[in-house]
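Researcher: I'd like a structural prediction for the single chain below. Treat it as a standalone chain; there are no partners to consider.
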Amino acid sequence: MKAMKLVFGIATALSLIGPGLVSTLPAAEGDATNVTVEMLIFSGRPNPTWQLQDTNRLGTLKAKLKETPEAFKTEPAEWSRVGFQGFIIRDGRTPGLPSEIRIYQGVVKTGHGKAAKYVKDSTGLEQSLIDEAKKQRLEQPVKDAITKYESARKAAQ
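Model: Treating it as a single chain, here is the predicted structure.
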């Protein structure tokens, strides 16, 4: 009961701060992970973030990162456009995974600068993140942007 009051108090405080700054709290205290997802969408204000609930694909990704050839050598120009730009997963505590992973347009980026590696998302991680994003309490324009992106990705396949 005490935990529920705390969650309600935090949720109330967040709603007073402003919608969209933080998407939601983890589903339940025992379900929380140490993996944070950031949805890259805003310029000039904080992006929505949440704790990743389904970490199963991260284990699969760890194995695939070593065996999957690079998709391309440099970051595509469209990755720096305005609007929805994919997701960043931050962890740092899972052995074998980089501390930051970016997923966008079916590609997984690890590393920075010249050490960056871009591989095809053969694990379905991006769709999993899209599905989680849809479950978050996000502003309607943000939900619309993710739905539009998902539809465009499916149409392109």
